[in-house]
Fold:
Amino acid sequence: MIRTAGVLFFTACTMFFGQSGTQETNRPFLSRSEAHLEFRSLSPGEVIKASIESPFAVKRAEIRFEKRTYAMGRGKESDPLFALVGLDLGLEPGDYPMIFTVVYAGGQYERIEKEIRVLSKDFPVKKLWVDERYVSPPKEVLQRIREESAILRSVYGIFTPRWQGEGAFVQPTKGRVVPNFGERRIFNNKPRNPHSGVDISSPPGTAVIASNSGKVVLASDLYFAGKTVIIDHGLGVFTIYCHFSKFRAGRGEFVHKGQIIGEVGATGRVTGPHLHWAVKIQGTRVDPFSVMDLDFKP
Ligand SMILES: [Zn+2]
Structure:
């Protein structure tokens, strides 16, 4: 028996809706799982908080979106299952299916499909002037750069199935926020990767706090990003903090939201002291302020 309602397709077996094993196939469905989407806007660089509300015991659930699988999870057993899905900075406008698979305790499953209409967004072009060694790195640092990108790949490959965050994300330092997420950057007249975070200008030494709770999975001095801390919040969500003058947290440490993790500095490829703050979700690059806008139960 297959029923459809709007964009929702139902394929679970009929027995599932019988009560105490009785088959009541002519009876309408009492209820079923629902997928909820929360977002600031649907354009490249934005995040969607997708959750499942179900009257039944759900064993696991996942989302397929743009060739990526997002296993859904939660912090507390009583919370609904959710995942943060990134609309990557480079995503082309258009309609994309988002497919939920919900597996129930009894082994039955349900498939829910939503259509996501991604709008187009123009990011400005910005010309910047930095020390030439950060644009065309000298031969002797190429090996270091290769090793660091391998380390970053393995860090972003970590998947913690339980949500580590506590409530909503917060801005990690005081200061002037430069709304430069997504800028297409030209360093010393050479085009380079777009700016995948936001910059917050603050005097050197200003405290930087964890935007949310999680485990420090990297605290290293990187060639381009300078002294960098990466926090794993679970479910493939990472916050990244760059150009520190000083570390105040180390790799492997669990940090709580609001805890000081470093101090603003000017290490790596910079034009002056500031915090570069970024968010990565399963490899997608999203604006940290779109993540900060999401509601989370404390
Ligand atoms: Zn930056």
User: Anything to note?
Assistant: The helical segments are 142-156, 288-292. The pocket of zinc ion is lined by residues 195, 197, 199, 276 (CB under 6 Å).
